[in-house]
Amino acid sequence: NAGVTQTPKFQVLKTGQSMTLQCAQDMNHEYMSWYRQDPGMGLRLIHYSVGAGITDQGEVPNGYNVSRSTTEDFPLRLLSAAPSQTSVYFCASSYSSGGPYEQYFGPGTRLTVT
Amino acid sequence: RKEVEQDPGPFNVPEGATVAFNCTYSNSASQSFFWYRQDCRKEPKLLMSVYSSGNEDGRFTAQLNRASQYISLLIRDSKLSDSATYLCAVSGSYSSASKIIFGSGTRLSIRP
């Protein structure tokens, strides 16, 4: 059972470039989310989705887009990368009804924007 | 003010000590509460959910104080392997998953 997978593991971008961080889960979880983690800042919620076709903003959504066309996939798009987006990005998933709502995290993508 | 706040630490305690962390939340409508553990350069993993009546899992005890809007984590007889960052998380809904907000984490280091 793969759980939550993220690709790539590492990425270096130049300012202004675009890219998509991939996230997939095979647990049939309805709820998926993206977080970024910076030193001393904990995890900050970027966007989340409670099911296919439904997304909503989290704490720090600016500069990021998401879509949820399938239950399994929840890609995160950076349209024009900025150095402030250098961070570790975690994708997570959980059931969305009936509990418990333990979130399972992917291994993370380490992104550097120069 | 952040929605969820934690003392960042670091807490540096000897093996066998008891250590406690608190986490305060600002949204009085919050319904679900969690403690996660994160090892260096790894993803967070659920340590335990926090129930209204408090709950215990071995050496770990979690409690919720709704009146003062904080949750706590107590670790007894700490082990070297308990060294990690502990993150609290708060969700707005009990009946269904909604956005889950994390604190900034508390670093714990256990010394021999």
What is the compact description of this entry?
The complex is a heterodimer of chains A (114) and B (112). Chain A is mainly β.
- The general outline of chain A is globular
Structural class computed from helices and strand pairing of chain B: mainly beta
Strand residue percentage of chain A: over 45%
Order of helices and strands of chain B: EEEEEEEEEEE
Number of helices of chain A: 0
Main sheet record of chain B: 6 strands, mixed
Most extensive interface between two protein chains, with residue counts = A-B, 29 and 26 residues
Rg result of chain A: 13 Å
Low-confidence stretches of chain B: none
Give the integer mean of the pLDDT values of chain B. Answer: 90
Strand content of chain B: over 45%
**Largest beta sheet of chain A, briefly?**
7 strands, mixed
Q: Determine the number of helices of chain B (DSSP H or I, runs of at least 4 residues).
A: 0
Fraction in helix of chain A:
under 10%
Q: Mean of residue pLDDT of chain A?
A: 92
The rough form of chain B would be described as globular
Rg over alpha carbons of chain B: 14 Å
Uncertain stretches of chain A:
none
